[in-house]
Design a protein that fits this description.
Largest sheet: 4 strands, antiparallel
Number of strands: 4
CATH topology: Alpha-Beta Plaits
Radius of gyration: 13 Å
Strand content: over 45%
Low-confidence stretches: none
Oligomer: single chain
CATH class: Alpha Beta
CATH architecture: 2-Layer Sandwich
Strand order of the largest sheet: 2-3-1-4
């Protein structure tokens, strides 16, 4: 299994819906056998430029251990999720 860092930005809504979306996105990784090593909630921030007519976004970063199938499934589901404004997946190098 490889280590990946995933950052995603959600539409700013009420606190309850944000927590629900974060748990659904994390469940994609854990349900398929990956593990979440660290998570960092960066909170609501102003975007540098409007994305999908949104001016603010809720930032969240997780570090996971997973194989490429899990990462591909996360990428697929994040692309079709309307509440995800942007996401970025980076493979971390082994030290």
């Amino acid at each position: 299994m490889n280590k990946y860092e995933i950052m995603f930005i959600l539409k700013t809504e009420d606190e309850e819906s944000i927590k629900k979306e974060v748990s659904l996105l994390k469940a994609i990784v854990t349900d398929m056998g990956g593990t979440i090593e660290t998570e960092k909630e960066m909170g609501n921030r102003k975007l540098a430029y409007p994305i999908k007519k949104e001016l603010n976004g809720y930032y969240y970063v997780i570090t996971i251990s997973a194989d490429s199938k899990i990462v591909a499934e996360f990428d697929r589901k994040a692309r079709i999720n309307e509440k995800v404004i942007r996401h970025l997946i980076i493979r971390l190098d082994e030290e």
